[in-house]
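REQUEST ID: PR-0412
SUBMITTED BY: lab tech R.K.
PRIORITY: routine
TASK: structure prediction, single protein chain
INPUT:
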Amino acid sequence: MKFRSRIAYAAVFAVAIAGCSTTVNEGDTAAGGNDGTAAPSGESAPLEGQSENTGEVTMSGAGTGVEGDAIQQVIEDFVNAEADFTASYSGSDSFEQEIVIQVEGGTPPDIAAFPQPGAVIEQAEQGNAVALEDMGFDIAELNDKFGEYLMGLGEYEGKHYGLPDSINFKSAIWYNVEAFEAGGYEIPETWEDLTAIAEEAAASGTSPFCLGTGSDAATGWPATDFVEDIVLREQGVDVYDQWVNHELNFDSPEIRSAVERFGSIVFGETDGTPWVFGGNDNITATDFRDAPDPMFNDPPSCLMHRQATFITNFFPEGVEAETNYNFFKFPTIDGNDGSLMAGGMLAIFANRPEVKTFIDMYTAEEPQCAFGAIDGIALISANKNTSADCYTNPIIKQAADSLLTALNDGTARFDGSDLMPPAVGSGSFWTGMNNYTDNGPDNLDEVLPSIDSSWPAN
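STATUS: complete
OUTPUT:
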């Protein structure tokens, strides 16, 4: 979840300143000799610079509780049951701080699951992470498994340092099923369909949307997600990429148009009923975790709420998926589709044959699909060769279908603010959207140039 990883990033920075089943057997070329030939069957020849097999592989990350238990269960079932080494996972709520200390102290795990791609690039820049090419990975094969876009997020100076981990679907608009049926609304496929529902709902006295961007020091990030979804559809993936890399300014016609479209929701009103429950001046004051609650009032105070799939963890007790709530994919704009996602990446800190073997086994289709059958797990595999059929939870199944389709179509994009420099992505972009939603559309001429001016010169 972005709100957590962003706050953790700031803590990590402060610490740093202070201080598809494919089992890889021993005879495969992955464990080949330095001349590129396969090692004889039953032998595991280390690559150059590698130590001999230690018999143990360690992985750590931020996943704890049910998620951490699920990771270890998959490791036990699909790695330890077949490999000639033992692998283990450890999770911590303080992972982002602890990994910095461990790396600086020379005691990192063999593999670390970072919540954001940018953290992997930092480890590459500092010379800590091991390049996948140096491990003997075939990048073409990894591109087939994860897609060139996701693999590219871990690229630094011509080499790859990150492997996509789990991902989550962000382009979801949740709705009250009973209220939709009672109002005779159909699932909108286009932006025009969506705004038509908004007009009709507001005319009847019900705000069409609930929206809250409060998140303590991270207040504003749900608004940036909303804008990113619009940019992706209104302008397409090429413009989206240019914007994220600051090859296109915030204060450009393309991005201004997207923010103004977001503003049409935020400041919309019909017959005195605001399109956002509570009005625009309550958006930043409403905690994002509480924002969907009015959708379940009796009668509901709003019909819809745009948020990533994890938001169901904060829905009121007793409401049931498909019966009381469901979601539809963010609709197309001018015929353009897309899917916004977030997720983490695996970075490797130990160049040993068994570490590579573990990665090959753990990221294969069968173990990745197995996650989908574990109760309480809402993560989606980044292995694009898996399918939505892996997921028993109907909500996650629907999200996986949308996201995997977009990954294969090339229309999926990572959360833009997570890829921007922190001064912008978790700084001026957040505060700029807070300023915009609080103070109205007339301040956009101030907000957008201000965000551009905060972009680091280098």
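NOTES: The chain has 18 helices and 14 strands.
REVIEWED BY: pending
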